[in-house]
Amino acid sequence: MTAPTITPYRSELPPARDGFPQLLHAEWTKLRTVRRWSLTLLAGVVITVLVSLLSAFSGSSSVSGDRSAPPVGPHGGVVSDSFPFVHQPLSGDGSITARVSPLTGREGRAPEPWAKAGLVIKESTKAGSPYAAVMITPGHGVRLQSDFTHDTAGGTVDRDRPHWLRLTRSGDEFTAYESADGSTWAKAGTTRVAGLPETVQAGLFVATPEETMVQRQFGSTSVGGRPARVTAAFAHVTVDGGQGAWPQDTVGGGVGGGLKGTPDSATEKSGTWTLTGSGDVAPYTPDVDIAQQSLAGAQIGLIPLVALGVLFITAEYRRGMILTTLTASPRRGRVLVAKAVVLAGVTFVAGLVGATLSFLLSEPELRDRMPNPLFHPDVALTDAPVLRAVVGTAVLLAAVAVLALALGAILRNTAVAVTLMVVALVLPLVLLSGLPLDAAQWVMRLTPLAGFAVQRTLPDYEHVDAVCMPENGCYPQGPWEGLSVLCAWAVVLLGVAVWRLRRRDA
Amino acid sequence: MRGALHAEWTKLRTVPSTWWLLFAVSALTWALGAVTTGTVSTDQCPSPDECHEDTVKLSLTGIWLGQAAVAAFGVLAMSSEYGTGTIHSTLTAVPGRGRVLAAKATVVTGATLAAGTVAVLGSLLVGRLILPGNGFSSTPLSLSEGPALRAAVGTVLYLGLIAQLSLGVAAVVRDTAGAITTVLGLLYALPALVELVGDEKWQERIHEWAPASAGLAVQATKNLEGLPIGPWSGLAVMGAWAGAGLLAGATVFKLRDA
Predict the structure, then answer these.
(1) Which of B39, B54, B188 sits opposite A430 (nearest CB)?
(2) Do B176 and A415 count as a contact with CB atoms less than 8 A apart?
(3) What residues does A195 pair with on adjacent strands?
(4) Looking at the DSSP assignment, which residues form a beta bridge with residue A169?
(5) Does A304 touch chain B (CB under 8 A)?
(6) Could you tell me if A267 and A402 lie in one domain?
(7) Does A323 share its domain with A389?
(8) CA-CA distance, A146 to A300, in Å (whole number)?
(9) Domain boundary among A283, A313, A328
């Protein structure tokens, strides 16, 4: 008698079903089919948009106020361009040379570090027209600047002794020279200014940024600014290729009308010109970053996303689902990575929707409520800095969700993980204004909070001293730098989570 | 009722997380208090004697961190019963649901008040030790002064109210993640809105109605006229939040199947 042959059971499913795509599909199914999680995701978007709208529509609107158009520079941005200008026409190539005395502030005050005195070759006396200028500054030595946004450093300047400067034009190219004694000259730099006519104005100028006063004490900050005024003397002024007479003008109208002391002026005495001026020649940087403010809701909208990220792993432990998950896919590291990929993708899309809506709905209102909207750049979603901020906000929300997932996987405790994340990301908003500046800036640099730097859209110019206060949303680091700090946190913690998951029983 | 209280106390006492969280209340409060008192300086003031910094409030800043542990404690006292299914045994043993919640609230509040007292006294001690080194020597912290005593007692009461609010929210939401997110949103996101809205009227409104910023007004000892809301009325707002939370929790707890 022969034993009956038994055919062992073989699954009819095709082999190789435990690849990474299948894992992604499994995690996506888990995320998609829990209705509470979809609602949480929606809550993240809605809160982001609502808080942004609240911050836009609660702003004080100023109906009155000066709405005259500010000068616009060759780069298309708003500029400050106001200085006493003693000049003469210069046809074709040529140069201007002078010995410039050290700058003095008004009524014996120290001048601002970025106060300027020097030589300028400018298209016309119209504010905002293209120019190249070489100057001495009290805090930053000799500088060659052109068209407001370009700045090249030259040599250092002795604070107490006059300094010789020369600026030459050769077509569109400008070269600056400097000298301590008027006989040995060193090149300070070259720059190009496009679109200048044959005849330009070459002359002398002084300018200074405003005096800023910052009062920062526990819980309250006040930043005040008032026009400053500086004076400098120019001796041995010669213009190679000039035409003799010295007309005086004030470019852009003075700004220091209400100041006491010597008014803005230019006087000549036995060949030496003394100029006193109160305006500045620099790009204008608004103190409010409107595009950044329109995305403020993300700072609160991240709370539901944190809860989602933590739950995506801790719920598996609570329900015992983790056992099924790890049985189906015994390679544990890949499970967590698949979870992170799915979560990051979903929260990125949600964040992108939230950020785009926030920007489109809040930005026009915010700009309209500024004292003079014309001083703020009229930006569109497709402008590079705005696009960076909006997409960056989505990346930042995805990174926060992954960070929450990693923390949840390490701690396996919903309450503690959610609490840690929310406290780390939201509490600084309440407390940063109370910490001393140094401490606050270190928190913004090193904690996951650094990622919010990506929302900043205004350019930082090295040759403009901006008041950078944490409570105004000014981060000490660049946008990408900040975002990469946050992403590093997420990646490192995810690595620790993978390691822990492998080493420990589920 | 005594039996219910005893049962709740036993449940609370025998879970290790209780002791960890109560320890965290003090440790976190002290740590942040040490950071803020350690980094403050008199540089901004004309002279150290003229520095009218609210040193009591400054020393108690750590509560902003410590309250997170209180919130987790209050939430877990309720939601973990649902997570583990203990709620069935609890309600079988004590069928009066109002009594269960009242006993829980009493035990949780009592434990929080005890931990809060340690946290507050420790923070004031830390402030007393650190602040003179930073130039604030003229006004040593002392509980014998009326406002300082009010700030200390009020802060402890505030923590007790946070625990009740968390318990109430957890009774409504039942799920740990949902409850803790809701409570932390109330405690942190609402005051953070003050930094995000531009209008002063709105900032003041949020200050008056958000549980954390209104309740912590009780810590102010200086410049009381400048506050959006007075110390005791601020704590009363927090009390109203806690009362509303507990009431909602009790209502839902009675009406719904466990």
Answers:
(1) B188
(2) yes
(3) none
(4) A94, A174
(5) yes
(6) no
(7) yes
(8) 42
(9) A283
CA distance A290 to A293: 5
Residue A74 lies in a domain: no
**Which of A44-48, A241-245, B107-111, B165-169 shows the lowest per-residue confidence on average (mean pLDDT)?**
A241-245
Phi, psi for B113 (deg, rounded to 5): -60, -40
Q: How far is CA A284 from CA A121, A127, A278, A287, A388, in A?
A: 21, 13, 15, 9, 21
β partners of residue A131 = A122
Residues A458, A287: contact at Cβ < 8 Å?
no
Kind and range of the H or E run holding A370: none
Q: How far, in Å, CA of B91 to CA of A230, rounded?
A: 81
Report percent pLDDT > 70 for chain A. Answer: 92
Condensed to tens digits (0 to 9), the pLDDT of residues A15-57 reads: 656 688 889 999 999 999 999 999 999 999 999 999 999 888 8
The pLDDT assigned to A209 comes to: 87
Domain coverage including residue B131: 2-255
- Please give the pLDDT value at position A262: 63
- State the DSSP code for A71: P
Q: Do A134 and A233 fall into the same domain?
A: yes
- For every residue of A108-166, DSSP letters joined together read GPPPPTT-EEEEEEES-SSTT--EEEEEEETTTEEEEEETTTEEEE-----TTS-EEEE
Question: Does residue A127 sit in the same domain as residue A194?
Answer: yes
Which amino acid makes up residue A485? V
CB contact under 8 A, A58 and B197: yes
pLDDT (0 to 100) of residue A139: 86
Which tens digits make up the pLDDT trace of B78-128? 999 998 888 999 999 888 899 999 999 999 999 999 999 999 999 999 988
CATH (domain of A257): 2.60.120.560
- Write out chain B residues lying below 8 Å of A297, CB-based: 196
Nearest CB to B180 within list A54, A299, A419:
A419
Collect all residues of chain A within an 8 Å Cβ-Cβ radius of residue B76: 415
* ipTM at complex level: 0.91
Would you state the structure tokens that stand for residue A65, as one six-digit string? 């106020």
Average pLDDT over residues B42-69: 80
Q: What is the number of domains present in chain B?
A: 1
Is A310 contained in some domain?
Answer: yes
Domain of residue A410: give its range. 21-58+288-503
Q: What is the C-alpha to C-alpha distance for residues A466 and A461, in angstroms, rounded to an integer? A: 8
Residue A478 in contact with residue A470, Cβ under 8 Å? Answer: no
Is A460 in the same domain as A420?
yes
